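We treat protein structure as text, and this decision shapes the records that our systems exchange. The tokens are whole numbers drawn from a learned vocabulary of local backbone shapes. One such record is reproduced below, unchanged from the form in which we store it:
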Amino acid sequence: MFLKLEGLNVTGSIKIKTAIGLVEDLERQGIAKPNKTVIVESSSGNLGLALSMVCAIKGYEFICVTDPNANRATIKGMELYGARVIVVKERDSAGGFLESRFKTIDHILQSEPNAVWLNQYSNIANKNVHAEQTANEIAREFDKVDWVFVGAGTTGTLAGVSERLRQEFPKIKVIAVEPAGSVTFGGAPGKRKIPGIGTSVRPKLADLAHPDRVVAVSEGRTVEACLSFVRDYHLLIGGSTGTVLAAVQELAPEFSPGETIVAISPDLGEKYLDTIYDPTWVEENITLLEVEKQAELAMGK
């Protein structure tokens, strides 16, 4: 079992690859022009932070549309890089914030003539950068990979990794992991508190992902996996990683001796000290939310 630690990238997550790939794709098309184009994106945190740095370096104004689940440290980081951060507080029809974020972006595009939306949710450049980089990094390390576990958010990483690794390892089993309450692969919509994984609006890139299995993980299990990993391996991991590791644990009885299992860890856990690793926050946000969900199920809602 191998865990690919993307949290060691600059800005602390896998999303720096996505940020560079999306912006440079616009530049190749002649759409983005430094000191003129205003780049706009919806992000729960990590891509927003990565884009803030990339745009600061390249000379673009950047507007990030996020929601209350974003970590305070990430929002502060974006602002320090010079980004304008808009926090959308209205939940959408699926109980999340993504549809509300999209409406805010539409308003920005209508009012700002130089604004361009990267749209990580349907932009093929999102998939391609992870096929070219993330998947190839895995392929170079192993003679064979039997299972790969990838958290599903925009599904850009999932689509790129699954496409490329299936070419390299035709018998590989690709496992998509999402939180309970995410609608990406047909799950029932529900409120979620841990950012960076899952959606309340199915992203178009999901049509290109084609996982062999989808595992939905409750946020309570995500927290347990994060805390267990810290105790056993002495490394803080982010919520998406905890979700992925909970899925690995669930399917572990199906692994055969000698198989190689790879899981992708999108980020580390320092940004989550006030949330996932804070017992009070977990009690108020995760435990009570799961009690509420159980009560609704018992009442047949």
